[in-house]
Automatic annotation (TrEMBL):
Residues 242-437 form the HD-GYP domain. This is Uncharacterized protein. It comes from Streptomyces gancidicus BKS 13-15. Gene3D superfamilies: Hypothetical protein af1432. PROSITE patterns: HD, HD_GYP.
Length: 459
């Protein structure tokens, strides 16, 4: 707790107290004997205990090495939502308590994370159960009234999602890099929309569990509904594990390039971002957009095969040195050709220095002979090179760089890609960071080279 800022500690204590209030019985309801913590004495303990045990077991499995998923914590909401559809608010909130409170926390501060995880889930389940109760969902589930049950379950899921995203938004707002200043509503809205679809699927599974629980088949059949949900979640988790491995591979390659050529630190990430802007502007699907981001990030990985003295040399290159640097696309292609998930990004690594008029390298391809991915990355690469401050040149203003790209369109670059970048930056803007760690040096006297006049980083 001591490691948290004061504002975060106050927020955490508030959410924890709110969760404790949700565990208290509702006023005006008889509470005799051992059922004093439940809002209705007709509610037995065993559904609460059974659902709490199932939820804790699912959470434990989610954290195991067999099925480690991308979002630890709250990965099995169907059990919580089934409790919200079957039990009164306080009893439903108790279902989340053991799993959220007792399961281990991977990163510190552990106490704060444990309390936060517990508080947000207890409040969200309580709110979902209350909405479900007030809209008549309990009777609809008991009578297996499907239209009514779907409508009331939808309202409960909406409340569940709204509470989670509001609480999460409160955490993100004061955090560095969290909710952008002046735009908290837009950021929370995006968070809400991103959570609504998966929680809706979880809500349907929870509703099926509740309906079977109330049917003649009973709780055992109801819990079997969770099996296919668990299998599908496991497959989804494996996909994200593979994706995380892909990202780690790319990060390792980029870090190696940055260490070798410190003058271009951050350049690869910005080229990836610009490539994404172009791809989205051209209407490419999400899979291709992601692939072009990989292409932009890895386009200069072949520099690992180029002597460092050439990459960091001040002054003009000799013809022999230029030929060595012009080998870096082929070096890069050899490095990534065996990485199957990169797909067409491999072609972009090999051909991003080709020119539309056939005067590029390494193979002198022209026009449509150049792969589309390489034409995208070529524009993104040149744009970032012009708008980034290096140790040997100052950054050009973004409008000047765009004008230069338009001037070279048709000879150096594909006009379609240039227009796409101009339109995208016109809408979103561009804020390049300084890539050199050293103070700006005095440029070497000599003629100014065109935007693609020097291979590699020396454009």
């Amino acid at each position: 707790m001591e490691a948290l800022p004061a504002r975060a500690r106050v927020y955490l204590v508030g959410v924890t107290l709110l969760g404790l209030c949700c565990l208290l019985p509702l006023p005006g309801v008889p509470r005799p004997g051992v059922l004093a913590s439940l809002p209705d004495p007709r509610v037995p303990w065993w559904p609460v205990v059974l659902l709490a045990a199932v939820y804790a077991g699912c959470e434990r499995l989610a954290r195991s090495r067999l099925a480690a998923g991308p979002h630890p914590g709250g990965t099995f909401h169907p059990v919580l939502l089934a409790g919200a559809f079957l039990l009164p608010p306080t009893a439903a909130a108790l279902v989340a308590l053991p799993g959220a409170l007792l399961l281990p926390v991977e990163h510190g501060p552990r106490l704060a994370r444990r309390l936060w995880r517990t508080g947000r889930l207890v409040v969200a389940v309580w709110a979902a159960s209350l909405v479900h109760l007030k809209t008549g969902g309990r009777d609809a589930v008991a009578q297996c009234d499907m239209p009514g049950a779907l409508a009331t379950a939808g309202a409960a899921v909406l409340a569940f999602c709204l509470v989670l995203t509001l609480l999460d938004g409160g955490v993100l707002a004061p955090a560095p890099g969290g909710v952008p200043r002046g735009r908290p509503v837009a950021a929370w809205w995006r968070l809400f929309l991103g959570s609504l679809a998966p929680l809706t699927v979880h809500g349907l599974a929870g509703l099926m569990t509740a309906l079977l629980w109330r049917s003649p088949y009973g709780p055992v059949a109801a819990l079997l509904v969770l099996l296919p949900m668990g299998v599908s979640w496991w497959a989804f988790a494996q996909y994200h594990r593979e994706r995380a491995a892909h990202q780690a591979t790319i990060r390792a390659l980029v870090q190696a390039v940055d260490i070798k050529d410190g003058y271009t630190r951050g350049h690869s990430e910005r080229v990836g971002r610009a490539s994404m802007l172009i791809a989205r502007e051209l209407g490419m699907d999400d899979e291709r957009v992601e692939m072009l981001r990989f292409a932009g990030i890895l386009h200069d990985v072949g520099k690992l095969g180029v002597p460092t003295r050439l990459l960091t040399k001040n002054g003009p290159l000799t013809p022999e040195e230029r030929r060595v640097i012009e080998l870096h696309p082929e070096y890069g292609h050899e490095m990534v050709r065996g990485i199957s998930f990169l797909g067409e990004a491999r072609a972009a690594v090999l051909h991003h220095h080709e020119r539309l008029d056939g005067k590029g390298y390494p193979y002198g391809l022209a026009g449509r002979q150049i792969p589309e991915s390489a034409r995208v990355v070529a524009v993104a690469d040149a744009f970032d090179a012009m708008t980034s401050t290096r140790s040997y040149s100052r950054a050009r203003p973004v409008p000047v760089a765009l004008e230069e790209l338009e001037r070279c369109a048709g000879t150096h670059f594909d006009p379609r890609m240039v227009k796409a970048l101009v339109r995208a930056i016109g809408r979103t803007g561009w804020h390049p960071a300084v890539t050199a760690d050293e103070p700006l040096r005095t440029p070497v006297p000599g003629p100014v080279e065109p935007v693609t006049g020097r291979p590699g980083a020396r454009r």
